[in-house]
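HUMAN: Can I see a protein plus its fold?

ASSISTANT:
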Amino acid sequence: MEIDKKIIIKLVQVLEDLKKSLKDINIESKDSVIEEEIDLSNKIIIKSPIVGTAYLAAEPGGKKFIEIGKKIKKGDTVMIIEAMKTMNHVPSTSDGIVKEVCVNDGQPVEFDQKIAILE
C-alpha cells in the first residue's frame, strides 16, 4: 500500500490550523468523566464477571431482579449478562441492601465494571 505524501502533508496542515483556531477554547473530553465521590467504606461493590449486555429483568417488561432499597442475599441474581447468545446470571457476592444500580437495562458492560452497590 502506497501512501500519498501530499495527502499526509495536507492533513497535518489542516490539523495544525484547527489546533491554532481552538487555542483559547476549553474543550471537555468524554474520556475525562469524573465520577461523583461516594463513600465506599461500608459499601459492597458488585462487579461484572464478563463482557456483555446487562439485563435487569428475565424478560422485557418483567420484574427487575434488584431495585434500590431492596434487601438481597448472597447468591441472589443481581442481573443477567448476555455474552455470545448465552444468558449468564450474576449472583450477589454478599447480603445487603441495594443502594445503587450502576447500569441500565440493555447497556453494554465491561469486565470488572461496577454494576451495583450494596450496603
Summary: The helical segments are 5-21. The first strand starts at residue 44 and ends at 47. Residues 5-21 form the longest helix (17 residues). Residues 74 and 94 are 4 Å apart (CA to CA).
